[in-house]
Amino acid sequence: MHYFTDMPLLLMSVQSWTYILVGLTFSLYIFIAIWSRAGSTKDFYVAGGGVSPLTNGIATAADWMSAASFISMAGLISFMGYDGGVYLMGWTGGYVLLALMLAPYLRKFGKFTVPDFIGDRYYSNTARTVAVIAAIIVSFTYVAGQMRGVGVVFSRFLETSVEWGVVIGMLIVFFYAVLGGMKGITYTQVAQYCVLIFAFMVPAIFISIQMTGNVLPQMGFGGSLEDGTYLLDKLDGLHTQLGFEEYTSNKKSMVDIFAITLALMVGTAGLPHVIVRFFTVPDVKSARKSAGYALVFIAILYTTAPAIAAFARTNLLQTVYDSETQTAQAYQDMPDWFKQWEETGLLAWTDKNNDGKIQYVNGSSIVGKKPIFIEGKGAHGERLLSNPNIKTANELYIDKDIIVLANPEIAGLPNWVIALVAAGGLAAALSTAAGLLLVISTSVSHDLIKKQINPDISDKKELLAARISAAFAVVVAGYFGINPPGFVAAVVALAFGLAAASFFPAIVLGIFYKRMNKEGAVAGMVVGLLSMLFYMLTFKFNLFGETSSEDWWFGVSPEGFGSIAMVINFVVSIVICQFTPPPPTEVQEIVENIRIPRGAGAAQDH
Q1: According to DSSP H, which parts of 158-230 are helical?
Q2: Burial class of residue 9 (count of CB atoms within 10 Å of its CB; 0-12, 13-18, 19+)
């Protein structure tokens, strides 16, 4: 099964390889930050506006493919099967929507930030302030997932605690985001894309060859195993034997699938850290080109993720279950990777029936979202949970975020490949975290201080304010990384819902509806954002008492409610604008002008 276990490279441990590869990549990021440090606010906000379309396309892909894409998406698909496809459809479709429908027009408008666009388009500092608040809420929710991803990687591969892993990640991001701004982040993200895509594809290719004989993982996904069984048929069979529903079956309601897909799509189109990337190129034509390049670079990872999910799920099930004898494997026979991941607290086993074997079947193994360990070992060497006496027979807890990171170990790949995936996961998390922190800092320094509090502030003082804001944002992001509201992709999905509920209608109506005024836009954003926050707090965080999926409105999960909140925003905005004065003539002329795809110049700070 494992063809690579005798390679000489295994003479070095995973931890040694991780120190080498992570050290080299971090050194590269810091060098780039020093080399490209920002000297002006324009450098800090939009990298001077002179980035080439190809460079910006690569940087956009890195900015877009966060820890959710690299670490968590394949894990979600691995556990959800067919239903996990909503993340592929929503995130990919959303990027196409953003690139074709919004980015060129926003670039033509010529503003640094989304709040800047909303403030000027709706001729209102109130609208600008609401947009700033929305941008900060969306960005902090999103960045919490990235910092958790950093902590997960460090906790396993550098054998630190998740908390210390987050702190180390904070320090690295602080250095190149605060020093380099968008200029430093752009060129750092080019390097991070190269690292993350290489780290994602190398193990995928190895495992595809190992399991199916196909070099391309996309072909291996539909290929057959050594015994002639198709991979997905094998996976369906293993699921059925263990009491799970078939991997390829549809388990979610179509209403929720549609709602999540739509929320992710329109949330993408409202994400401020992605939109701002289209201001870093010289003109609208370059913005369109960079969008096309980014889509190609994104597709490489997104078309590979379903294959990795299927490979990992098959290998995992075959590790803990012998399908030929239809018996669970004994804990004492588990490979080293299993026990090493136990030490992180992200994988756990408790022997409920005291037979020394790992019963992995359908049903919850623990109460709550994560296991709480008791000091000491169980009778068979397992780490005990504080709540093992659950009625379901399932004895194995697996955090969804470990699947991609553990995949090379499960498949028995060389240690350097395992360490490479760790470096790739960090690159994915840090690249997006930096972009999000920049959004937070520019929202404070540019849209609050420069545009409202102190319009006469000097360029030097504004740059200092941006750096102080970024430093503060790093600290807050670290707190959320240590105390996350869920696993990476779930947290990120909530950020997309918040963006869908707040920004998307205001941006779309601002571009395509001349009659939309400040009263309608402000009311829509406030009501949409509050609706999404209320639903999250009620059904995701159980702030008002315990809830279940049976309590969801219209059968829509918190991850999908952004689509309903978006509709509420649209309705409120349009209704209010009909009963309030139309926008000034000059604003309507601006709306007409930005829809003409020519004659755009550099971003204007006025």
Answers
A1: 162-212, 217-221
A2: exposed
Question: pTM of the full predicted structure?
Answer: 0.80
Quickly state the pLDDT bin for 601 (edges 50, 70, 90): very low
pLDDT in tens, 216-264: 999 999 999 888 899 999 999 999 998 889 999 888 888 999 999 999 8
What is the mean predicted confidence (pLDDT) over 10-31? Answer: 78
**Percentage, residues of the chain above pLDDT 70:** 86
* Mean pLDDT of the region 260-271: 84
CA 6 to CA 331: how far, in whole Å?
Answer: 24
The residues near 300 (Cβ < 8 Å, ≥ 6 apart) are 197, 201
DSSP string, 545-569: S---GGGSGGG--TTTHHHHHHHHH
DSSP string, 252-319: S-HHHHHHHHHHHHHHHTT-HHHHGGGGSSSSHHHHHHHHHHHHHHHHHHHTTHHHHHHHHHHHHHHH
Q: Report yes or no: 163 and 482 within 8 Å, Cβ to Cβ.
A: yes
Q: Name all domains of the chain by residue range, CATH numbers in brackets.
A: 8-312+411-505 (1.20.1730.10), 318-403 (no CATH)
Question: What is the DSSP pairing of strand 321-322 with strand 347-349?
Answer: unpaired
pLDDT of 40 strictly over 70: no
So what's the pLDDT on residue 7?
Answer: 44
Q: Give 465's strand partners.
A: none
CB 360 within 8 A of CB 321: yes
Total count of residues recorded for the chain:
606
Give the best-scoring range by mean pLDDT among 183-187, 292-296, 362-366, 433-437: 292-296
Q: What is the 3-state secondary structure (H, E, C) of 3-37?
A: CCCCCHHHHCCHHHHHHHHHHHHHHHHHHHHHHCC
Report CA 415 to chain centroid distance, whole Å: 26
Would you call 320 helix, strand, or coil by DSSP?
A: helix
Residue that is written with structure tokens 């068979």 in the block: 380
Percentage above 90 pLDDT, the chain: 18
For residue 91, give Cα distances in angstroms to 64, 302, 590: 9, 9, 31
Element (H, E) at 41: helix 41-46
Mean pLDDT check: name the lowest of 177-191, 443-457, 579-593.
177-191
How far apart CA 510 and CA 491 sit, in angstroms, is 28
Closest CA to 76 of 552, 553, 398, 371: 398
Q: Which of 534, 530, 552 has its CA nearest to residue 543?
A: 534
Alpha-carbon span 3 to 531, nearest angstrom: 53
Contacts of 117 (CB under 8 A, 6+ apart): 106, 109, 111, 507, 510
For residue 492, give the nearest of 256, 143, 258, 166 by alpha carbon. Answer: 143
Per DSSP, the chain holds a count of helices (H) and strands (E) of: 24, 6
Please give the structure tokens belonging to residue 404: 């991609």
- Identify which of 518, 516, 531 has the alpha carbon closest to the alpha carbon of residue 569: 531
CA distance 363 to 369: 13
CB atoms within 10 A of CB 459: 14
What is the distance between the alpha carbons of residues 24 and 601, in angstroms, rounded to a whole number?
A: 39
Which pLDDT tens digit goes with each residue over 557-576? 888 999 999 999 999 999 99
145 or 347: which leads in pLDDT: 347
